[in-house]
Amino acid sequence: MDYILEPRIIESKDWATVLFVLCLVLVVVTKTFFEARFSEFIRLIVTDKYIKIYKDPSHIMSWFTISLFVVQLISFSFFILILLDFIGLGSKTDGIKFIQIITLLGVFVLSKYLIEKIIATSFNIEDFTEQFNLQKVSYRTLLGLILLPINVLLYYNSFSSEILLYGILAFVLIFNGFTYLLSLKSYQNLLFSKLFYFILYLCALEIAPYFFMYYWFTKR
Fold first, then answer.
1. CB 172 within 8 Å of CB 143
2. Alpha-carbon distance 59 to 102, whole Å?
3. I need a labelling partner for 58 at 20 to 30 A (CA). Which of 50, 66, 116, 205 fits?
4. How far is CA 79 from the centre of its chain?
5. Does the structure show a pLDDT above 50 at 161?
6. Gap between the Cα atoms of 77 and 109, Å rounded
7. pTM reported for the whole predicted model
8. How confident is the model at residue 89 (pLDDT cuts 50, 70, 90)?
9. CB under 8 Å, gap of 24 or more: what pairs does 37-46 form?
10. What's the CA gap between 75 and 145, in Å, rounded?
11. String of b and e for 107-121 (b: at least 16 CB within 10 Å)?
């Protein structure tokens, strides 16, 4: 009788566990040091009181926003990695693939923000863009926090339900679209007074970057 030995490949998930714990620590630390603000932030899903209180542009560069932005970035990167694993374009335990995703996502977001700053300065609409960005960042950060426990469940469990995954993806897209419309409604008076600049902003910074990313991704 011949025996054929095959190597048993065990994919490591330690790096993902470290990142999930890091996110938890950041959330706990942020809640500890900014307890009142964090409480209002969590209630964003039912009331916009947080937006009215913390609408000053200086808040976009506060430690509260930065720490939760890191959580948001990690959360969205994990969700994209899980999507790629589901459609067969990668493995959710591939740490290199995760680094590529989070790097691309981080560069995209920061580059978009810097270009927005340049255009806002050129057209003298800095206050509007800062407040508009702060509102968008707040809602997307909340979405990142909601996705975090979902990512943990999807990452550590095997699943094959297309309805489940596409349902979560639909929720993400609808949530983004709805909160974007809320942001537009909040500044509708200001938008009408600067309609030309807003149309330019919308085409150049809200539509074109996502179109080019989609084109690049499908071609690559």
1. yes
2. 24
3. 205
4. 10
5. yes
6. 12
7. 0.80
8. confident
9. 37/64, 38/64, 41/68, 41/138, 41/141, 41/142, 42/142, 44/138, 44/139, 44/142, 45/142
10. 7
11. eebeeeeeebeebbe
Mean pLDDT of 81-86: 87
Q: What is the predicted pLDDT for the residue at 197?
A: 62
Residue 205: other Cβ atoms inside 10 A: 17
CA-CA distance, 78 to 85, in Å (whole number)? 10
Contact 51, 138 (CB under 8 A): yes
Looking at every residue in the chain, the average pLDDT score rounds to 78
Please report the DSSP string for 160-207 in residue order.
--HHHHHHHHHHHHHHHHHHHHHHHHHTHHHHHHTHHHHHHHIIIIII
**Burial zone of 216 (CB within 10 Å; 0-12 exposed, 13-18 middle, 19+ buried):** exposed
Query: What was the pLDDT predicted at 22?
Result: 93
